[in-house]
Specification:
The protein has four helices and twelve strands; from the N terminus they run H-E-E-E-E-H-E-E-E-H-E-E-E-E-H-E. The chain is an alpha+beta fold and 223 residues long.
């Protein structure tokens, strides 16, 4: 697999991963008959990608190629003003923090910050060297490793021209007794797995950042 260009884990990582969640903005319509929904009534909160009618994001730079802030198995276009930073979990010097940057079969490789564009949240790219798993298997393992996740709704899709799988789900903070939306997309390439995850401070921020996620999905290419 291509060696990643990495720097130290940003301090914002720990804050973002442990941040509180605000209440969900409400249920969406029932998912498409062809989707595979896992969970109860709360699954409606994890909006199906087909229902996203947000205005397309303005294009910024690209990420993923050698020489970019993060060298990845894939390349895609960032939304304007979003900034990327590579993550080196081995250089963190903190076992607990490094553990937060590993989830299921993947580890965090790149953190793309929405704050310069006016939102509070990140697109995070997680990678693994394995090529033997399907995108759906990668996503299911990723979600299963998050003990706060539930109501997952999966569907097969395409990212650029690549076969992909996508999931919408909710995470719940037991401390605050609040839930928020999450979304992730996975592809497998000859260089390994790439998983793009969109969270957000709360569901409202998540919805505001969806155009950036959709732009990454539309422009994604294997390196």
């Amino acid at each position: 697999m291509r060696k990643l260009i990495r720097r130290s884990v940003p301090a914002a990582l720990l804050v973002a991963l442990l941040a509180g969640c605000s209440a969900d903005s409400g249920p969406d319509p029932d998912p498409d008959p062809g989707s595979d929904r896992k969970g109860g009534e709360g699954a409606d909160a994890a909006a199906s990608p087909a229902k996203d009618t947000s205005k397309p994001a303005e294009k910024g730079g690209t990420i993923g190629a050698a020489g970019s802030p993060c060298a990845l198995p894939v390349t895609f276009t960032l939304a304007a003003k979003w900034t990327a930073e590579a993550v080196d979990i081995d250089a963190a010097g903190d076992a607990a923090l490094a553990e937060l940057a590993r989830q299921g079969p993947v580890e965090m490789a790149c953190e793309i910050d929405a704050k310069p564009a006016g939102s509070i949240g990140y697109l995070r790219v997680w990678t693994a060297g394995t090529t033997g798993s399907t995108p759906r298997e990668v996503l299911e393992a990723f979600v299963a490793a998050d003990k706060t996740a539930g109501d997952a709704e999966y569907q097969d899709t395409e990212a650029g021209s690549l076969p992909a799988a996508e999931v919408g789900y909710v995470t719940t903070s037991e401390l605050l007794d609040e839930s928020k939306k999450e979304r992730a997309l996975a592809v497998t390439t000859p260089e390994g797995v790439a998983l793009i995850h969109l969270g957000g401070l709360d569901s409202a921020e998540h919805d505001a950042m969806l155009p950036a996620f959709e732009l990454a999905k539309k422009t994604l290419r294997a390196n």
